[in-house]
Amino acid sequence: MKRTKITDLLQGASALVGQEVCVKGWVRTRRGNKHVQFIALNDGSTIKNIQIVADMQRFSDDQLKPVTTGAALCVEGLLVESQGKGQSVEIQATDIRVYGTADPEQYPLQKKGHSLEFLREIAHLRPRTNTFSAVLRIRSALAFAIHRYFQERGFYYLNTPLITASDCEGAGAMFQVTTMDLRNIKKTPDGAVDYSADFFGKPTALTVSGQLEGELGATALGAIYTFGPTFRAENSNTPRHLAEFWMIEPEVAFIDIDENMDLAEDFLKYCIRYALENCADDISFLAEHFDKELPARLESVLSQDFKRLTYTEAIEILEQSGRKFEFPVKWGIDLQSEHERYLVEQHFRRPVILTGYPKEIKAFYMKQNPDGKTVRAMDVLFPSIGEIIGGSEREENYDKLMARIEELNIPMKDMWWYLDTRRFGTVPHSGFGLGFERLVLFVTGMTNIRDVIPFPRTPKSAEF
Ligand code: 4AD
Ligand code: MG
Q1: What's residue 303's pLDDT?
Q2: Strand partners, 81
Q3: Which letter does DSSP use for residue 333 in this model?
Q4: What is the pLDDT averaged over residues 408-425?
Q5: Which of 74, 316, 347, 392 has the largest CB neighbor count within 10 A?
Q6: Can you say how many angstroms the Cα of residue 151 is from the centroid of all Cα atoms in its chain?
Q7: What backbone torsions phi and psi does residue 99 show, to the nearest 5 degrees?
Q8: Which residues' Cβ are closer than 6 Å to ligand 1?
Q9: Beta bridge partners of 382
Q10: What distance in Å separates the CA atoms of residue 143 and residue 248, rounded to the nearest whole number?
Q11: How does residue 197 score in pLDDT terms, banded at 50, 70 and 90?
Q12: If you measure from the C-alpha of residue 440 to the centroid of ligand 2, how many angstroms do you get, rounded to a whole number?
C-alpha cells in the first residue's frame, strides 16, 4: 500500500476517515494495557504524531515487544475519528512491521526531557527530538523563503568561492587551506614558507564572506545574492558565534545606503512573516516549551518600522543611559552585544539600524563620508540577538578606495581583480550580509546558536 506522510494525513483527515492507510515513521512512545496499546508515531513531516491503536486481540505481546521508543515502523490500518482526547484521528492498526529496533537499554533518546546541552553531545540523533525537528523544519522553510524573496525580485543567485586568496573583512580570522605536509614544510632560502610548493601555489583560506566576488556579480547582473557557508577562525566562544555559519549576501548596483536599509528591513520582515505563516505548528511548539513571548516578539518586528540612527547618536544615548556597562562607552569603540541590546531592548524597544560608524572599526571597502571619520556602514540590531545584519554602501571611487587599501597595508597584488570593478564602469552600489543562524535563532526563540545548525563547529568542537 502507498505510504501517506503524517502531515498529509492530518491535513486531509476528513476525506481519508474510513479508509485504509499506510504510515511509516519512528516510535515516540508506547503505552496502554493488556487489551489495547497506543503508539505515537512521528515521521518528521510535522511536529504532530499520529496515534496508532493496536487491539491486543489482533496482536501478540511478542509482536509488539520491539515497538519501543526510537524503533522504525510501517503501519497499515483504518483511519478513524479518535475517541480519546489530544488527536482528531487515529489509525486502528491491521498490520505493524518493524524496520529497525532501538534497544531501550542503549537508545540515548529513550527518556524524554534531555537538556539542550546533553543533546549537543548527541547531535547525530537530536533531529529525532521534537525540539530539533521543529528547528530544522523552520530552518529549511527560511532558506526557501530567502531564495523566493530574491528570485521574485530579479536577483540572481551567485555562487562565490569557498576557497579564496583574499581576506574580505580584513580581520585575519581565516582557516588556512593547504595540502602541504605540516610535519615537513618547504621553506624558501630566507626561511619563509614556500607556498609555491602548495596546491594553489600561494596561501589560500576558507572564505569569511562572498562579498567581494558578489560585487563582481552585481556590477554585471545588476542584483545578485549569495547563500552559502562562511568560515571564521575567531576564538569567540559565545552563544552567537560559529566557526562555520551560513550567510546570505545580496549586492545591488545603483542603490545607496538608504535603499540598502529599505531592502534589509523588507527582507527580514518577509522571512519572519513567511515563517509565521508556514511554520505555525513548529513555532507554537517552541513557544510553549521554551519562550512564551516568541510569537508576540515576531509579530512586533513585523508591525514596527526599524529605528534608524547614526552610531554617533547611539553613543550619546548609551553615555546618557546612566547604565554601567562591562565595556565602557566612548566614541570610537566597537559596540558590544550589551550596548546593542540596550538600544534595542530597553531604549527603542524595536529593531534598530545603525549607520555612520567610525572607519577604523569597519572594513576597507565601505564608502567614506565627507567628514573623513565615518563610513556608510549599517548594522541591523535585533532584540535578543544583537547584530543580525552587517552591510554598507561600497566605496566606488577608485582613488579613495586605493588610499584606504594603502592606509591599511592590504596587499595590493591580491586585490587587482576587485579594483577592476572601480576601473571599468564603476557605479554606486550597496549590499549586506545576513547571518542565517542568527535569523533562525530569532525565529525559533532558541538562545544558543549551536542549537539552530545541524552540526555546529566551534572552538575545540568539530564532532560528527
Ligand atoms: O558583519 P559581517 O562580518 O559582514 C560581512 O561579512 C560583510 N561582508 C557582509 C556584506 O556586506 N556583504 O557579517 C555579516 C553577518 C553578521 O551581521 C552576523 O549576523 C553574521 O554574519 N555573522 C556570524 N554568524 C555566526 N557566527 C559568526 N562567527 C558570525 N560572524 C558574522
Ligand atoms: Mg558585522
Answers
A1: 96
A2: 89
A3: P
A4: 92
A5: 392
A6: 19
A7: -75, -50
A8: 168-169, 209, 211, 232, 241-242, 245, 247, 249, 387-392, 431-433, 435, 437-438
A9: 386
A10: 10
A11: very high
A12: 17
